[in-house]
From TrEMBL:
Residue ranges annotated for the Tetrapyrrole biosynthesis glutamyl-tRNA reductase dimerisation domain, each copy included: 321-419
Metabolic or biological pathway: Porphyrin-containing compound metabolism; protoporphyrin-IX biosynthesis; 5-aminolevulinate from L-glutamyl-tRNA(Glu): step 1/2
Originating species: Streptantibioticus silvisoli
Domain of life: Bacteria
Entry's Gene Ontology molecular function annotations: glutamyl-tRNA reductase activity; NADP binding
Name of the protein this chain belongs to: Glutamyl-tRNA reductase
Binding site for substrate: 49-52, 109, 114-116, 120
Function of the molecule: Catalyzes the NADPH-dependent reduction of glutamyl-tRNA(Glu) to glutamate 1-semialdehyde (GSA).
Length: 451
């Protein structure tokens, strides 16, 4: 496997660019399909969240892969390549694995340590599997990624380093969970982020929970599970005057609430009503940024959270997670490098078995008087000698191949034993073993290491 990731996140791009580059589900599907149709890529997964868009691919050509993936991200996001390129980061092979493991552990999140990214990675893998754009390489990588993320959260206190984006946003909006008790809350959307928001609000003691969604059945299911009520999406504006807190996170491509709708709701609020708190977790945004200008409302959106998170302190447990990531990347790389030599070893043993069979057949022709027991003893002896001769070098070559720079041992083995390249390729095709020796190549020096 030669893993390549091309993407942009809150670390490399301003929120305004991320917002414009956000992908709908249909756009993600088309991006994956077009990536596989491109020559350099054999498998692909797209990870799109409120603060990152990343395209992972198993490629056979680095430079062609970077050019193709960058172009495809531009085409499907609608952001021109010249404008998008300065914000893109590129990681390759081991560096790409390190990046993905770090993302899964919450080290690269806007709120360090948040665990929701694990669910988003799982969803990204499932989406690609449904579209049949993954194979053994990316399936194995992403499954291992999920295990690494779970290990980081179970073996360290990284959860204490940060909160979920929802909790972080609500704290920025209200000043603490205690400020939500007795309030009336409106949640717009019924996806994973909205569901987390609704559950968080209920735990914080809101007096009333209303859920609105384009699919009323999903809103009703979420509301019923938390003791709230559901309303049709068209009634969001009508519910605003009675709400104290609004959390919106939909997949809409346009605004859900514009300035005029919020202004009208403020006029209809009862006298003495508290400031209307609005948290927009969508990308692109659901709530018009011009709402900031209105008196009587406080709006917190992704851009506000990005600025606040940049100043948030990091816990000591982050260092422990970084060590876990480094160890896991080394182990994964060693396994991949060792796995790469397997087809060559199999081809060597197959060749040896064919030679033994051929020589035993010749012996039968030259010594036709041998009885069955004698033939069996000779056959077992010859095969045992060949196995003993091959055992030590094949075991050792697998060990050496697992070390950095060990990829050349497969080439040496093929050259020394004059193995048929087609025979090795046939084993590779069946087993799909993958390999990689990694380094990090950015779009330019300024972007090197960002991501």
């Amino acid at each position: 496997m030669s893993l390549l990731v091309v993407g942009l996140s809150h670390r490399s791009a301003p929120v305004s660019v991320l917002e414009r580059a956000a992908l709908t589900e249909d756009a993600k599907a088309k991006l994956l399909q077009d990536t596989l149709a491109a020559e350099p890529a054999a498998e692909a997964v797209v990870l799109g969240t409120c603060n990152r868009i990343e395209l992972y691919a198993d490629v056979d050509k680095f430079h062609a892969g970077v050019a193709e993936l960058s172009t495809l991200l531009s085409v499907h996001s609608g952001v021109g390549l010249d404008e998008l390129t300065p914000y893109l980061y590129v990681h390759y092979e081991d560096r790409a694995v390190h990046h993905l493991f770090s993302v899964a552990c919450g080290l690269d999140s806007m709120v360090v340590g948040e665990g929701q990214i694990l669910g988003q990675i799982k969803d990204a893998l499932g989406f690609a599997q449904e579209l049949h754009t993954t194979g053994r390489s990316l399936n194995d990588l992403f499954q291992q990624t999920l295990r690494v993320g779970k290990r980081a959260h179970s073996e360290t206190g990284i959860d204490k380093a940060g909160q979920s984006l929802v909790t972080f946003g609500l704290d920025r909006l209200t000043g603490g969970a205690g400020e939500l008790a007795g309030k009336r809350a409106l949640v717009v959307g019924a996806g994973s982020m909205s569901s987390l928001a609704a559950a968080t609000l209920v735990r914080a003691g809101v007096a009333e929970l209303v859920v609105a969604n384009r699919t009323l059945e999903r809103a009703a299911h979420l509301a019923a599970s938390l003791g709230g009520r559901a309303v049709p999406f068209a009634e969001v504006a009508a519910e605003l005057p009675a709400a104290d807190v609004v959390v919106s996170c939909t997949g809409a491509t346009g605004l859900v609430l514009d300035r005029d709708a919020v202004a009208a709701a403020l006029r209809d609020r009862p006298a003495g009503a508290p400031v209307l708190g609005m948290l927009d977790l969508a990308m692109p945004r659901d709530i018009d940024g011009a709402v900031h200008e209105l008196a009587g409302v406080r709006l917190v959106d992704i851009e506000d959270l990005a600025a606040a998170a940049a100043d948030a302190p990091m816990a000591a447990d982050v260092d422990a997670v970084r060590r876990i990531v480094a160890d896991e990347v080394a182990a994964f790389g060693a396994a991949q490098r060792a796995q790469r030599i397997t087809p060559t070893v199999v081809a060597l043993r197959t060749m040896a078995a064919d030679v033994v069979s051929s020589e035993l057949a010749r012996l039968d022709g030259r010594l036709p008087g041998l009885d069955g027991k004698q033939r069996a003893e000779i056959s077992q002896t010859v095969r045992r000698v060949v196995d003993k001769l091959l055992h030590a070098p094949t075991v050792r070559v697998k060990q050496l191949a697992g070390e950095p720079g060990g990829a050349g041992y497969a080439d040496a083995l093929r050259e020394l034993f004059d193995l048929d390249p087609q025979a090795v390729a046939a084993v590779s095709h069946v087993g799909r073993p993958d390999a990689g020796v990694g380094h990090d190549l950015g779009m330019n020096d300024a972007n090197r290491g960002r991501g």
